[in-house]
């Protein structure tokens, strides 16, 4: 059994000793003290055994040979520390040997030969398990003196690519191959300082310095066309520093390595040369490795010596554990972009221009980094206090809400009692105490909100005629365990009578005895009055329907069944014949002249326009004709389908007969008026007009036969003749206005055109006459009606509108003729004009009613007026008009 298995065996022994001290369900109390003592003893033995095993770990000898000593090179010092720390992970006790060639202090060949001989003599008789070569010179020395190594495995690190020869694969060797990155550093520098024109490369003359300068020089060759490079490597340190103080603008400095200057003075590059160069240069200084990133240098793509040491230590541990170096591949060293924040700030370089994933060192800690713990502690305290406050506020809010809800419920109860004119009661049957609360003023006329007294007080307010029914309802509810309900009247102290409805219930003890009664009463006087008013209204409606000869109906369109009220029998003179109770049968009894219009009205309902009214004639069973006026409302389902129609039908036969009689009288009056106009016009034209013409001729003859008249007399005679001529013209115009004879000879179109032209000459109004598709033959009464409407409309324009222009438009449409008179004047309110004292609009409507025409007026104040006239033409005239249009189209 190996030493590594001893701890496992000890643990199993410890378990076997401790296990009997435990029961199936856990630790047994009587054995507690003894178990603790035994456990501590076993733990002590286990630790002692572990220490003994640690002391007998096998020994392995490891030699670290570096180019420079740890004192003269911080980079190699970091690699050594990483190597030492990594080797501690091995399962062996390491004898650590550290040697250095000291290339900077003893760079001459004689010194190096002596160091080599001393090294070989020192370790010739020492059996080494592993050699770690830190640096290119150390690796070259080992490769050239492999005889004394006796096949000792070698791990190299801090070996730069392109400097040393590739590792000799005939030896037992592997390691970490490093590479400097001057080209990447220069790319980052040019991106940070894009206006750079000069690059000054500084270096030394030591054995360690020349290879670093050679790497930089080779990498910068491709940048030479765009940037000027100056290599300063052969100066003494004072001369170099003085030159760096006076560099031109737009310059950057790239530091390689200075371990020896031109005077032969030695320097530790990282701790001495780099700080001197960075402090003297008046331009930003970029470096090659991470140990050179010190105060004043900017940084770059840097080699990390500690990473090389850690990687080499991992390889060393694997070789000590038995792996062959040949089986472990050579790896490349790690590098990273690293920059100093203070140097970036000094030279005004933007951190945002750094390459991605760059590491920025020495950045001042932020407020959060400095005081994060205090801020978090304060926030936690504030949050805790806030939570406590929120909890208290929540409790307070809950209590406040409960109080508010209780107040709201009380207010709702009170408002419900007041708005509903209600009161509540609680009757304690054991004590006889009856408590009333609520709107007692409305209920009983008591000016208090509460009342306590015996139940007899309640019966004292009940109307004498209702006391027994109320008492019986209470007793019935009490005996039968049923809710109590009653409607009765109450009498106020002042004699006012109110109607009340009351509901309540009894509460019983476990033994079944009633203990108390709860209830609510509400004033229903308004409802009772409304019911009485409704009853009276229904009665009045019934009487009105009987007197007005009307009946109601409901038509179910799906089944085509019509249900009518009883008055239809008297109006339609139908008996109870079920064959007449459908919409189709009802439509068949409509007068043939009105049947098409009635059917279109009945089937043309829409959900947007469900209300209608129509007038039609109906044939009774005895073939008599009556006029009916139907008003209805159509109802539709969600899909817009007609479901039913409800409406009223009234017998308007007498009204229609009266309208026909009135129309006949109006027609005769208008005809008599036109005849009288024609007679007066004829008298004026044939009599007075002729006489005035003879008077004018006589005056002219008198003037010609009196040559001796004075000039004054002749002038006076001329004035008399002009007056006679003017009177004759006025008589002629008056005759024409009373009866236009041109209507009989020239027709409507020519007469209107001539009238509009004459009207323009007589008044300060421009009238435009337009006609389209003029009817061929128009009845005489229609012609006179249209002419009189134009006359009256144009007179109103001159009198009231103040317009300067008007338009008269006449058009034929086959079965009708349309007339439109419009102006752009002041306008008026048609409703006000209808109710005025003027006869203009009344005359127009009366004339149109006689010929079956329609009149519509569109007018608003300040927006002008438009009068539309539509008169239907008889069938023969419509046919003539259509033929005229056809002839015009053919032409």
What does this structure look like?
With about 900 residues, the chain is of the alpha/beta class. Helices cover about 45% and strands about 20% of the residues. It has 27 helices and 31 strands. The strands form six sheets. The chain has a seven-stranded mixed beta sheet. A hairpin with a 5-residue loop joins β20 (about 495-510) and β21. α8 packs parallel to α9 and α23 (about 750-760) runs parallel beside α24. The protein is elongated. The chain starts with 5 loop residues before the first helix and ends with a helix. About 25% of the residues are buried. Residues about 1-40 and about 880-890 have low confidence and may be disordered.
Low-confidence stretches are 1-38, 878-891
The largest sheet has its strands arranged as 9-8-10-11-12-14-15
Proportion of residues in β-strands: 15-25%
Between the first and last Cα atoms, what is the distance in angstroms? 133 Å
Overall spatial form: elongated
- Structural class estimated from helices and strands: alpha/beta
Query: In this structure, how is the largest beta sheet organized?
Result: 7 strands, mixed
Percentage of helical residues?
A: 40-55%
Question: Helix count?
Answer: 27
Average residue pLDDT: 78
**What is the tally of beta strands?**
31
Radius of gyration: 64 Å
């Amino acid at each position: 059994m190996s030493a590594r298995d001893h701890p496992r065996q000890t643990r199993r022994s410890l378990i076997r000793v401790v296990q009997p001290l435990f029961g199936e369900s856990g630790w047994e109390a009587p054995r507690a003290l003894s178990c603790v003592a035994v456990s501590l003893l076993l733990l002590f033995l286990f630790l002692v055994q572990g220490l003994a095993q640690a002391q007998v770990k096998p020994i392995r000898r490891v030699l670290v040979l570096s180019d420079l000593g740890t004192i003269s090179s911080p980079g190699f010092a970091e690699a050594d520390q990483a190597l030492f720390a990594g080797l501690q992970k091995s399962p062996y006790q390491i004898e650590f040997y550290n040697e250095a060639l000291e290339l900077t202090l003893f760079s001459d060949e004689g010194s190096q030969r002596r160091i080599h001989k001393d090294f070989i003599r020192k370790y010739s008789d020492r059996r080494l398990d592993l050699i770690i070569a830190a640096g290119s010179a150390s690796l070259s020395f080992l490769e050239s003196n492999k005889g004394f190594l006796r096949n000792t495995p070698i791990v190299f690190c801090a070996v730069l690519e392109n400097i040393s020869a590739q590792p000799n694969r005939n030896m037992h060797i592997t390691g970490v191959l490093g590479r400097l990155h001057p080209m990447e550093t220069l790319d980052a520098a040019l991106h940070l300082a894009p206006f750079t024109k000069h690059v000054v490369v500084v270096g030394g003359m030591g054995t360690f310095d020349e290879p670093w300068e050679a790497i930089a020089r080779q990498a910068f060759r491709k940048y030479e066309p765009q940037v000027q490079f100056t290599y300063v490597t052969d100066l003494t340190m004072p001369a170099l520093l003085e030159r760096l103080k006076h560099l031109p603008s737009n310059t950057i400095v790239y530091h390689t390595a200075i371990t020896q200057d031109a005077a032969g003075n030695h320097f530790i590059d990282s701790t001495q040369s780099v700080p001197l160069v960075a402090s003297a240069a008046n331009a930003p200084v970029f470096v090659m490795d991470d140990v050179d990133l010190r105060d004043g240098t900017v940084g770059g793509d840097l080699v990390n010596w500690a990473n090389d040491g850690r990687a080499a230590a991992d390889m060393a541990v694997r070789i000590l554990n038995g792996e062959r170096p040949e089986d472990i591949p050579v790896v490349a060293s790690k590098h990273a972009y690293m920059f100093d924040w203070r140097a970036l700030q000094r030279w005004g370089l933007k951190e945002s221009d750094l390459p991605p994933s760059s590491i920025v060192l020495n950045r001042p800690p932020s407020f959060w980094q400095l005081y994060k713990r205090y801020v978090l502690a304060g926030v936690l305290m504030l949050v805790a206090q806030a939570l406590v406050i929120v909890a208290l506020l929540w409790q307070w809010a809950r209590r406040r809400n409960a109080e508010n809800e209780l107040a709201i419920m009380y207010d709702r109860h009170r408002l419900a009692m007041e708005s509903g004119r209600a009161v509540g009661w609680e009757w304690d049957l054991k004590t006889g105490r009856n408590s009333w609360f609520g709107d007692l003023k409305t209920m009983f006329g008591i000016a208090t909100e509460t009342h306590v007294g015996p139940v007899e007080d309640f019966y004292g307010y009940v109307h004498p005629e209702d006391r027994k029914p109320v008492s019986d309802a209470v007793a019935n509810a009490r005996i039968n365990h049923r809710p109590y309900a009653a409607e009765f009247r109450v009498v106020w102290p002042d004699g006012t009578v109110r109607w009340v409805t009351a509901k309540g219930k009894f509460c019983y003890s476990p033994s079944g005895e009633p203990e108390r009664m709860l209830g609510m009463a509400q004033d229903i006087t308004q409802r009772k009055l409304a019911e009485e008013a409704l009853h009276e209204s229904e009665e009045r409606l019934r009487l009105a329907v009987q007197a007005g000869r009307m009946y109601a109906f409901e038509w179910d369109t799906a089944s085509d069944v019509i249900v009518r009220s009883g008055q239809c029998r008297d109006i339609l003179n139908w008996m109870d014949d079920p064959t007449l109770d459908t919409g189709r049968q009802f439509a068949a009894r409509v007068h043939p002249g009105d049947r098409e219009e009635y059917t279109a009205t009945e089937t043309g309902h829409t959900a947007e326009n469900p209300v209608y009214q129509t007038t039609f004639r109906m044939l009774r069973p005895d073939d008599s004709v009556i006029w009916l006026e139907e008003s209805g409302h159509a109802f539709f389902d969600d899909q817009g389908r007609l479901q039913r129609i409800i409406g009223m039908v009234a017998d308007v036969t007498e009204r229609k007969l009266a309208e026909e009689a009135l129309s006949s009288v109006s027609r005769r009056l208008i005809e008599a008026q036109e005849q009288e106009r024609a007679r007066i016009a004829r008298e004026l034209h044939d009599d007075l007009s002729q006489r005035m013409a003879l008077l004018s001729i006589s005056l002219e003859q008198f003037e010609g036969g009196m040559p001796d008249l004075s000039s004054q007399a002749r002038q006076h005679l001329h004035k008399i003749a002009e007056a006679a001529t003017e009177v004759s013209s006025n008589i002629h115009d008056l005759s024409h206005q009373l009866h236009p004879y041109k209507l009989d000879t020239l027709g409507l179109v020519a007469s209107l055109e001539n009238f509009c032209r004459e009207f323009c000459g007589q008044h300060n109004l421009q009238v435009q006459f337009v006609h389209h598709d003029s009817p061929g033959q128009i009845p005489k009464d229609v012609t006179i009606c249209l002419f009189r409407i134009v006359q009256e409309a144009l007179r109103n324009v001159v009198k009231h509108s103040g317009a300067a222009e008007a338009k008269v438009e006449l058009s034929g449409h086959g079965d009708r003729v349309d007339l439109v008179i419009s102006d752009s004047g002041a306008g008026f309110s048609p409703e006000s004009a209808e109710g005025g004292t003027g006869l203009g609009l009344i005359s127009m409507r009366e004339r149109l009613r006689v010929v079956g025409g329609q009149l519509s007026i569109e007018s608003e104040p300040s927006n002008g007026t438009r009068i539309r006239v539509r008169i239907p033409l008889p069938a023969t005239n419509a046919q003539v008009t259509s033929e005229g249009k056809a002839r015009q189209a053919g032409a």
